[in-house]
Amino acid sequence: MLRQFLGLRPNANRAVADAVYSRIVAAARQPEFYANWDVPDTPLGRFEMLSLHVFLFMHRARGGDQALGDLTQELTDGFFTDVDHSLRELGIGDLGVPKRMKKLARMFYGRAEAYGAALQAGDVSALAAAFQRNIRPDLAEWNGAGPLSLHAMEVERCLAAQTSEQLLQGRVEFPSPVR
Q: What is the DSSP letter of 168?
């Protein structure tokens, strides 16, 4: 409202990034992850699934044109703003949020590096090991790591088949997890 009053136009990328982000959130909240693959249905478990899907979109967008890079940056900014808001809703005080945000950002980018290397190599086992290490380090053997790694590979293929024009219009599609 204030932006309109001052004559500022809304950021077109923001609207598209919001549309893409809502698709990512919907993909990350699919019950299959939590009910059948034993991803913890906790704030941290939901962060892991959201981070994975944000990463997969970023992975698809890398090497694209400037417009796709701008959209990806807007999406990433929105993701971290959402994480900040979530921390505050969990009752983390103003003094504790920056420290936790730094930790979560390190976690996200560390995971992105590990997941990216496994995807580049087409190594399902390395991806499953990274998921085990990051999502369920409390279990010696996590049966959800294998299905989740196959799902991530399928998401990568599905996103690769979508044109940059589709993505720039916010028309991103994620496949449903298959048992």
A: H
Residues 6+ apart with CB under 8 A from 173: 23, 158, 162
Q: How far is CA 173 from CA 60, 86, 144, in A?
A: 12, 25, 23
Question: 53 with 28: CB under 8 angstroms?
Answer: yes
- Claim: this prediction has a pTM higher than 0.85: yes
Do 17 and 75 touch, CB atoms closer than 8 A? yes
Pairwise CA distance, residues 162 & 157, whole Å: 9
> What are the tokens at 14?
């923001």
* Residue 74 reports pLDDT greater than 60: yes
Structure tokens at 50: 């959201």
